């Protein structure tokens, strides 16, 4: 069953189209991530779901209740949708407890107990209840903001880049905490981010936005392996893209013959491989034959646990231009040095990109 | 990014296209806010409408005979000379004092800085009273310029000192590294950056020069305002007074135009990121230090010493007799009452406009705001004349009632409340209001629980400024107040008109005591805008 349904949502600011024909279904209990570069309209979409902005046309339903259609609009305060923005946006004139209790309609002891329970659930110490927002660290502020949004038992939780203000180590920890917390509470969640690794790790449904359009949605692994076009492929991670001729399930390209996932015969197309699908084998002596094609390491970019290598393929005998350069991942410690000759082989399928 | 609509984009979008972004206008509530703001601005336009209306009604022939006569020419020359001499003197004094307190190692410069603002606590007509009782024959242009400079130079000192504190010293370092001598650095780099402060301060002084009645009446220097007042007293509400008011209003509008042209469009904010370093302090040589200390001593002696010594002299001479509690207490009470009522009314009226200007800046809002600014730059006497005429003709029941007085205060002092309130509302980002709504609070409740709570300190500062302006207001109160009203200012005025200077002294003292918090507030605010 789907919690939230968006039907052909459009929105423009004067001549500028912010959202064009957005359709999206969010299944109950899922974690959906909307990812896109800044300016792609993802925050506008989120604010529209929250009820802070209204679409020019389109329909929006939550659990079967119509939130927006051409004839009526439910205002934000009647939607029961939780919202956590980038900086937490705690009310600066209220203590932590007052912030968390803001959305609660209960009073007295019951309220205090509920606040304590909420603070416990986001791993905040009970003695922080009387602190002021400015006395908290960034991560603590985010947790208060989350508890505040959870207090009203929202039908849907919206997170607008909630981790981007935190530093790297804290970000991953917060992400895990939030994911587990929301899963335990069984709250359907939509997260907006421009960080692809955050998107891939948090999502069980990923939606990629670009220039106001929703270009592709699906399971994160599927989107990573089988992106619709080159731009999406590159946005979701490093990619090796090269032209190839497709014949009977095989791609013929500079790397030789590689199996492809989709069969479109006798066509020239772009194929995509992730760098981790390429494997290097050092050539010990000229006499030993290995699979794949020969190449020379031209650049090494060492960054600890991994090392990103640039290799230049040996030019084919017929062509006069130099061979193609490829990016390959290798383990940081055992990467071949610059100038060494290697064999490049591939693992798995190549993905045929559609014409864009 | 389309997520947050930049102000320029929002302004460029015609209103019909924008009507659905209810996140900003919050549905029906938004319509109310806009309606109230429009209403306020129409009210603010009334004095100008009155002048235009009266001019049309009077007809060109009468108008010409009233305007083109030697008396008007004489008043015009007086006013122009007063403005043309006083403003440059105030600028020079303001820049010199501000530089010395902010950029030199002058001994006791924090104290001198406080003393340079202190003259604001003394109402202008009390300055004038002090000089007249010290040197009774003093009168005319020289006296006018002298007392004006003394009474109004803090209006220039304050913004210039604040700007000097904020200037990025790195720019001066760079100028020096390019081979400019210290004097050249000051004139080519520092002074141009003071332009906004100088223009703003000069405008404020200019508008006060045009609007002030008590100061010039006491030292017998005729300006348009004093002439209008005399005309009003002799012929009540005749066309002669109206036409003079029209010329005075034109002078004010001309001054606004000149100021906005002089301000230009250059950018003065710091371009770089990060916070600026501490400004450089220049070490004065002994000779310069002595000169500077002399300048401060003389300025303070004239601007604070003379009023305080005169007051002290009258209070000692009058003894216990001048403390007529039976008259003094009701005057104080009435002043406080009018001040509190006016401050509350003005602050409440400023809320819709301030909210609009922060939450949905655009063309409509700019027009609304400028209506209020233009009216508040009109002299109190013009506003008062307009209100007299309008209430006599159209709203007889409120003529000569407290309502009319409060209405005049509202028109004259709205921007004071507006500026502080706007800064306060800016402290509450719209995101917080949105969050409150997503937590189930209606737009009205969200505004009340979040934005207005956070804006409260700003609103309080604005209300305090309005209160203190009202407690020293003389002209409009004299013209509009119902019979029997006696505030500290009008009481003081009535007594000095009877040359009972000793009896007037307690009133002056009370006004100064009431104004002291204003001075403290201004000092504190100028420190805060400078980020200390």
Automatic annotation (TrEMBL), chain A:
InterPro entries membership: AAA+_ATPase (IPR003593), ABC_SmlMolc_Importer (IPR050093), ABC_transporter-like_ATP-bd (IPR003439), ABC_transporter-like_CS (IPR017871), ABC_transpr_FbpC (IPR015853), P-loop_NTPase (IPR027417)
GO cellular component: membrane
Cell membrane is among the record's keywords: yes
Domain ABC transporter stretches: 4-236
Keyword set includes ATP-binding: yes
Keywords: ATP-binding, Cell membrane, Ion transport, Iron, Iron transport, Membrane, Nucleotide-binding, Transport
GO biological process: quaternary ammonium group transport
One example GO MF annotation: ATP hydrolysis activity
Protein name (database record): Iron(III) transport system ATP-binding protein
Organism of derivation: Pseudomonas migulae
Automatic annotation (TrEMBL), chain B:
One Pfam family here: BPD_transp_1
Gene Ontology cellular component annotations, sorted alphabetically: plasma membrane
Name this polypeptide is given: Iron(III) transport system permease protein
Topology in the lipid bilayer: Multi-pass membrane protein
Family as reported in the entry's similarity comment: Belongs to the binding-protein-dependent transport system permease family.
Gene Ontology terms describing biological process: transmembrane transport
CDD domains referenced in this protein's UniProt entry, alphabetically: TM_PBP2
InterPro entries: MetI-like (IPR000515), MetI-like_sf (IPR035906)
Main location: membrane
Keywords, comma-separated and alphabetical: Cell inner membrane, Cell membrane, Membrane, Transmembrane, Transmembrane helix, Transport
Entry's localization field: Cell inner membrane; Cell membrane
Residue span(s) of domain ABC transmembrane type-1: 76-259, 332-522
PROSITE patterns the UniProt entry points to: ABC_TM1 (PS50928)
Transmembrane segments: 30-55, 75-100, 112-132, 138-158, 196-219, 239-258, 290-316, 336-358, 370-392, 398-419, 446-470, 501-523
Taxonomic source organism: Pseudomonas migulae
């Amino acid at each position: 069953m789907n919690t939230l349904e968006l039907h052909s949502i459009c929105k423009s600011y004067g001549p500028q189209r912010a959202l064009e024909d957005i359709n999206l279904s969010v299944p109950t209990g899922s974690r959906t991530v909307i990812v896109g570069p800044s300016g792609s309209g993802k925050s506008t979409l989120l604010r529209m779901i929250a009820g802070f902005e209204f679409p020019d046309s389109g329909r929006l339903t939550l659990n079967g209740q119509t939130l927006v259609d051409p004839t009526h609009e439910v205002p934000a305060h009647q939607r029961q949708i939780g919202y956590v923005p980038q900086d937490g946006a705690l009310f600066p004139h209220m203590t932590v407890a007052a912030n968390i209790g803001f959305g609660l309609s209960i009073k007295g002891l019951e309220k205090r107990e509920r606040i304590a329970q909420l603070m416990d659930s986001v791993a905040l110490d009970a003695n922080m209840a009387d602190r002021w927002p400015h006395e908290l660290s960034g991560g603590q502020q985010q947790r208060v903001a989350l508890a505040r949004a959870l207090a009203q038992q929202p039908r849907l939780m919206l997170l607008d880049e909630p981790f981007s203000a935190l530093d790297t180590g804290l970000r991953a920890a917060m992400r895990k905490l939030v994911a587990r917390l929301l899963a335990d509470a069984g709250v359907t969640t939509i997260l907006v981010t421009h960080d692809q690794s955050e998107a891939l790790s948090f999502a069980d449904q990923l939606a990629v936005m670009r220039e106001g359009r929703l270009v592709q949605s699906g399971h994160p692994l599927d989107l990573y392996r089988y992106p619709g076009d080159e731009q999406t492929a590159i946005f979701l991670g490093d990619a090796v893209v090269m032209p190839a001729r497709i014949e009977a399930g095989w791609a013929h390209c500079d790397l030789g013959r590689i199996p492809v996932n989709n069969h479109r015969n006798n066509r020239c197309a772009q194929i995509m491989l992730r760098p981790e699908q390429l494997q290097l084998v050092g050539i010990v002596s000229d006499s030993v034959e290995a699979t794949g094609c020969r190449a020379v390491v031209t650049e090494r970019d060492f960054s600890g646990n991994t090392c990103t290598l640039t290799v230049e393929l040996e030019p084919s005998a017929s062509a006069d231009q130099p061979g193609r350069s490829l990016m390959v991942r290798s383990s940081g410690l055992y990467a071949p040095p610059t100038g060494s000759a290697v064999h490049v082989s591939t693992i798995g399928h190549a993905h045929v990109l559609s014409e864009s | 990014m389309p997520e947050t609509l930049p102000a320029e984009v929002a302004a460029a979008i015609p209103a019909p296209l924008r009507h659905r972004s209810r996140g900003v206008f919050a549905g029906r509530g938004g319509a109310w806010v806009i309606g109230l703001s429009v209403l306020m601005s129409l009210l603010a336009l009334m004095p100008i409408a009155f002048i235009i209306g009266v001019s049309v009604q009077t007809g060109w022939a009468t108008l010409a005979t009233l305007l083109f006569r030697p008396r008007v020419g004489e008043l015009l020359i007086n006013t122009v000379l007063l403005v043309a001499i006083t403003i440059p003197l105030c600028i020079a004094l303001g820049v010199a004092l501000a530089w010395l307190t902010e950029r030199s190692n002058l001994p006791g410069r924090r104290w001198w800085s406080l003393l340079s603002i202190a003259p604001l606590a003394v109402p202008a007509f009390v300055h004038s009273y002090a000089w007249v009782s010290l040197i009774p024959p003093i009168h005319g242009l020289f006296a006018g310029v002298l007392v004006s400079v003394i009474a109004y130079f803090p209006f220039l000192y304050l913004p210039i000192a604040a700007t000097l504190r904020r200037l990025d010293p790195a720019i001066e370092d760079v100028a020096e590294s390019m081979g400019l001598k210290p004097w050249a650095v000051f004139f080519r780099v520092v002074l141009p950056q003071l332009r906004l402060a100088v223009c703003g301060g000069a405008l404020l002084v200019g508008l006060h020069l045009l609007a002030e009645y008590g100061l010039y009446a006491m030292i017998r220097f005729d300006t348009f305002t004093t002439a209008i007042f005399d005309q009003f007293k002799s012929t009540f509400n005749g066309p002669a007074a109206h036409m003079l008011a029209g010329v005075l209003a034109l002078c004010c509008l001309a001054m606004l135009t000149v100021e906005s042209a002089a301000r230009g469009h250059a950018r003065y904010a710091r371009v770089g990121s990060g916070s600026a370093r501490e400004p450089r302090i220049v070490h004065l040589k002994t000779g310069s230090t002595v000169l500077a200390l002399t300048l401060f001593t003389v300025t303070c002696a004239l601007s604070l010493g003379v009023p305080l010594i005169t007051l002290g002299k009258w209070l000692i001479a009058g003894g216990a007799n001048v403390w007529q509690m039976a008259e003094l207490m009701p005057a104080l009470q009435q002043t406080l009452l009018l001040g509190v009522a006016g401050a509350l009314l003005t602050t409440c009226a400023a809320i819709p406009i301030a909210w609009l200007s922060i939450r949905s800046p655009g063309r409509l809002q700019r027009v609304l705001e400028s209506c209020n600014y233009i009216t508040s730059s009109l002299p109190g006497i013009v506003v008062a004349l307009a209100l007299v005429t309008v209430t006599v003709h159209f709203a007889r029941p409120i003529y000569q009632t407290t309502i009319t007085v409060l209405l005049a205060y509202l028109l004259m002092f709205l921007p004071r409340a507006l500026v502080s309130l706007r800064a306060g509302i800016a402290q509450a980002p719209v995101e917080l209001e949105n969050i409150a709504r997503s937590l189930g609070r209606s737009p009205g409740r969200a505004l009340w629980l979040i934005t207005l709570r956070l804006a409260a300190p700003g609103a309080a500062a604005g209300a305090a400024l309005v209160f203190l302006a009202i407690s020293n207001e003389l002209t409009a109160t004299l013209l509009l107040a119902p019979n029997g009203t006696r505030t500290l200012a009008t009481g003081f005025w009535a007594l000095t008109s009877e040359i009972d200077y000793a009896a007037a002294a307690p009133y002056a003292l009370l006004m100064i005591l009431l104004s002291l918090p204003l001075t403290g507030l201004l000092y504190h605010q100028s420190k805060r805008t400078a980020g200390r």
